[in-house]
Amino acid sequence: MELRGASALVTGAGRGIGRAIARRLAAAGAGVTVVARTASDLDRLVREITAEDGRAFAFPGDVRDPGVCAAAVARAVEAHGRLQILVNNAGIGVQAPVADTSDEDWARVFDTNLTAVFRLTRAALPHLVRGGGHVFMISSLAGQNPIAAMAAYCASKAALDHFARCLMLEVRQQRVKVTTIAPGSVATAFAGERDDAPSWKLQPEDVADTVLDLLRTRDDAHLSRVEMRPLRPPTRA
To answer: pTM of the full predicted structure?
Structure first.
């Protein structure tokens, strides 16, 4: 895909992986519409991108709101004239045993990690099929590897993985690519550390670089799933 002049929508863009993806896309010449709950995070991101001569528009809102999903897609099309790239990155987790997981927490995780993805993708598809587009699902290795006290998160990512596979089969003949990126441990605030904390973990920029590499793949070649792991995680006795 020719990234200069392309249009991308990135959710969960205020911090971590989403922020890194938005910056990489903008640096490559794409116009980005960034979505997150915290307006101040988006404002800071947009200022940084525009200071580097990039194009970015902020759309603050919670993707659990169906109206936000539809409006964010409409805003991206309005801002850039079209939509070619959708990065479904927004995600949350709840760390609690099943016995202590409330209905509200379970619903909050699934509404963010799965239902919002469905709504955003459904709204974006009419635009993506017009000239060939690319949908990225930022999943997790937790979707295939159970973790105690993370049942809601693991189950939501497993469901996301299967949703992505079904979608890929539906839209590939319309020249729309669907790629699931499943990282292992990434150094983001998701796990409690600072965004810039040095560690053995993957960095958000590693995931962002992968998105750019996939977008530059030959049009008739489709990588539908990428798993990423730290090269040298700490050993346990």
So the answer is: 0.95
